[in-house]
Write a structure and sequence with these properties.
The chain is mainly alpha-helical and 174 residues long. It has a single domain (11-173), classed as Fumarate Reductase Cytochrome B subunit (Up-down Bundle), CATH 1.20.950. Helix content is 64%, strand content 4%. It has 7 helices and 2 strands, in the order ααααββααα. Helix 1 (11-27) runs antiparallel to helix 3 (50-71) and helix 4 (83-110) runs antiparallel to helix 6. The longest helix is centred in the middle third of the chain and has 28 residues, at 83-110. It is elongated and about 55 Å long. The model has no long low-confidence stretch (mean pLDDT 92).
Length: 174
């Protein structure tokens, strides 16, 4: 089943969800840069791919958002007092996934480095540091923390539905 239904998310929605979930989880290894000034095997292993994977996540998030809007009338219905909370959290997560890569690019550019995705220069190295780009780019880290908190909450809510409420919320995305 490609399309979503009232009972279950379709294969395309599930593909987007789990691919983005794995890629976002991998991106969180960038937090390892805070360990020993980035001289850590996690930072060394995953750090070089951070910008490129971030670009992929942004594209996937945009495609997933467009797909979700197309599937809106066929999706499982979120009812109850928490429906506004669920929609707000999902909206903030989409915002983070889409806004973080450009903000990260501004941060890199603001520090005086070129912005490269898969080895291709997207934004040339500036002659000097660009303070305004650096300052706006600082929002990248704030959104990363917000996203990490929301992801933990999202996982917690899914587990709550599965083990405590014993409903089909988690199974619809599995």
């Amino acid at each position: 089943m490609i399309n979503d239904s009232i009972d279950r998310y379709g294969s395309i929605t599930r593909f987007f969800h789990w691919l983005v979930a794995v890629l976002v989880f991998q991106q969180f290894f960038k937090f390892a840069d805070r360990i020993n000034d980035g001289k850590h095997w996690l930072g060394d292993t995953f750090g070089p791919y951070h910008v490129s994977i971030g670009a992929i996540i942004m594209i996937l998030a945009i495609l997933r958002l467009l797909w979700s809007m197309k599937q809106k009338n066929q999706r499982p219905i979120i009812e109850g007092a928490n429906s506004k909370l669920v929609k707000t959290v999902h909206g903030i997560m989409y915002f983070c996934l889409i806004a973080m890569p450009p903000l990260g690019a501004l941060y890199i550019h603001g520090h005086g480095y070129p912005v490269k995705v898969f080895g291709q220069v997207l934004i040339e190295k500036p002659a000097d540091k660009v303070q305004w780009a650096h300052d706006i780019g600082e929002l990248h880290s704030i959104l990363a923390i917000v996203l990490a908190i929301l992801v933990v909450g999202h996982i917690g809510a899914a587990l709550y539905h599965h083990f405590i409420r014993k409903d089909d919320t988690l199974r619809r995305m599995a």
